[in-house]
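Q: Here's a chain of 275 amino acids. Please give me its 3D structure as tokens.
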Amino acid sequence: MSVLAALLALTPDGPDSFVGPANGPTGKRAYGGHLAAQALAAACGTVGPDRMVTSLHVQFLRGGDAGEPVRYQVERVHDGRSSSSRRVLGCQGDRTLISATALFAVAADGPQHSDHPTSCPRGAAAPELLARTGPIGPAPALPLDEIDIRIHDDREGGEFVRRLWWRVTADLPEDPMLHACAAIYVTDIYGVDPVLAVHGHSMTDRSHHAATTDSSTWFHRDIRADQWNLLESRSPAAARGRGVMTAGLFGAAGQRVATMVHEGQAVTRRPVNNP
């Protein structure tokens, strides 16, 4: 089993209760994408194979300890003939770290369409044309030897657009739920950074207190995490110390497989005046 698959493999621990493995050194802040992906994995563990996840909504309530496991308790809010709803709380001890809701549905016939990524500048239209950059900054929680990330930031049209190509290079089982969880795991990294990038800053320059506080994902098609995916993100608004990132996730065939919105803090750091 790959490291990434092992991080997303939960251990049942009572009725609709699961324990997720730790993902980093003790005392370090837990990676939000890891918590969100494990929460989705816990919800997936309580539905039948006939239904696929259609949406995931997450609130990050407190920082967790990366070196400690997390317990996920799933509430079966609704089970109908064609859909199921789940609520998940992720806790370390008596501290609730994350609250998530997930909706699942049985596939049905209906209209199909998709937009496509915007035109990329020459030299950035395919991941093979880009250097293997990795994330924009440190990412100790991610098994980067199993995840190929290539980033191109574009300001040519007067609007900041981040194109993050990614794929899992390790072997993954043919499990659509696992591939969806892997997508949540990878795409949360520096999720609100485009909010700062619009203004020439980054989460890595420490100019702002920045962190994702809530995120929503709508799944339109099956995701193949072991093939190239493009996360094309923008920030349409920021005010009052908070900002929003909107993104389309496009699969190898160029179709939109998911839509994502992240909201979070973007608070200017004030200089400390030493007496």
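Q: Can you summarize the key feature?
A: Residues 3-107+117-268 form a domain with the Porin fold (CATH 2.40.160.210).
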